[in-house]
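Dear Dr. K.,

Following up on our conversation at the group meeting, I've run the structure prediction for Hydrogenase expression protein from Veronia pacifica. I'm pasting the input sequence below exactly as I used it, so you can double-check it against your construct before we proceed with anything downstream. Let me know if the numbering doesn't match what you have in your notebook.
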Amino acid sequence: MTDAVGIQLSRVAIQYQTSENKTLSSVNMVMPAGKWTSILGKSGCGKTTMLRALAGLLEPGTVFHGDVLTSDGIPLSDRVAYMAQQDLLYPWLNVMENICLSQRFGGKSADYDRARMLLKAVGLDEVAESYPEQLSGGMRQRVALARTLMQDKPVVLMDEPFSAVDAVTRYQLQDLAVRLLKGKTILLVTHDPQEAARLADAIYIFQGSPAYASPLAVPMSQTPRDIDVDAISLQQTILSMLGAKGGQYAGL
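The predicted structure tokens came back this morning:
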């Protein structure tokens, strides 16, 4: 496993070429090495834009200002894995082939032994030859998690990866991700305050227009957290900062 890397964002601002206004402005964040950091905010506030910026996936012509600093002084390029909301599995490839896809794109020989080990870790070793259409939504997301792990990058960007599954499956996937991604630096975008309260060691709320990042105080307890009094209190704080009224969150 590669060494964990801490990330610091300093006065980051992003403006799309097609927009007269900035999407993000003066964003300051610290993502501790080997820990989970979560971003929440209303729809369209720039959460995914931040992930795409860190992954080097911004559209041509997008203006980026500010600094992205790493704890080891090495740029993030080629050290980031991205796990999206959709599983993005290729329907014409079986599970094993989907997991090994990044190696094929990188011009490397597929490491089937490692792929089998990861499939076993996510509890899918018996479906290696199955195709995505034969799997449930939760199973497909576990394949996507195994594919992310196959890249073995020190930084993992996750864009609402568990939002499309039922509550019980989401809970199970959260626990699985914490266990298998241990030691990596995770930046998780989520709309779910409970998910952030369970998983995150650091939490930022994107507020305003253009958006800036407001940090929250997070319990020092080990993740994934039980939904105890502290976690519920944190969840209520998140909802309040997101502008929830009457227990409802308009950003959903």
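Two things stood out to me. The mean pLDDT is 90. Helices lie at 47-55, 95-99, 101-105, 112-121, 137-151, 167-180, 193-199, 229-241.

Best regards,
J.T.
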